[in-house]
Specification:
It is built from five helices and no strands. With 159 residues, it is mainly α. Helix 1 packs parallel to helix 4, helix 3 (71-99) packs antiparallel against helix 4 (104-126) and helix 3 (71-99) runs parallel beside helix 5. The two termini are 15 Å apart. The relative contact order is 0.15. This is Microsomal glutathione S-transferase 1. It is an enzyme of class 2 (transferase). Pfam families: MAPEG (PF01124). One of its GO terms (cellular component) is endoplasmic reticulum membrane.
């Protein structure tokens, strides 16, 4: 049913939608894990932004030294923010794309490349890998989202 919009009652039987749901769940879980990684780095580096978070390290002036920034924590936070800037658009555009009737093989290629690029981007941020690995992985994922958006707009304009 190439080029046809999927009906909501058919979504569960739609292989493209199931693929979308699978890869979306993977990248959303990866993004959620970044919160845990941030918490781990905050605790192990003793670098907090809220005074109440320092209570277990002392009170008053002795706890204030833990209200600080740390380069490792900030690196993880930047990676997480980059996820928010890229995965959220993928979720919305990917849904519209999945509903636009793409070929399964093409949809899988889009979803897999995006997912792989975001996972590589995270490793490039956290390890850190030398540039241009992080920049290239970002660009690949971003390009996939634009490719899907183009297909959605092309399909919608032809209706």
């Amino acid at each position: 049913r190439k080029g046809e919009m999927a009906k909501s009652t058919q979504l569960i039987d739609n292989e493209v939608f199931r693929a979308y749901a699978t890869y979306t769940a993977i990248v959303l879980l990866k993004m959620m894990l970044m919160s845990l990684v941030t918490a781990y780095f905050r605790i192990t580096r003793k670098a907090f932004v809220n005074p109440e978070d320092t209570a277990s390290f002392g009170k008053g002036e002795s706890a204030k030294k833990y209200l600080r920034t740390d380069p490792d924590v900030e690196r993880v936070r930047r990676g997480h923010l980059n996820d928010l800037e890229n995965i959220v658009p993928f979720v919305g555009i990917g849904l519209l794309y999945a509903l636009s009737g793409p070929e399964l093989s093409t949809a899988l290629l889009h979803f897999r490349i995006f997912t792989g690029a975001r996972i590589l981007h995270t490793f490039a941020y956290l390890i850190p890998l030398p540039q241009p690995s992080r920049g290239l992985s970002w660009a690949v994922g971003y390009s996939v989202t634009f490719s899907m958006a183009y297909k959605v707009l092309k399909t919608a304009w032809l209706l």
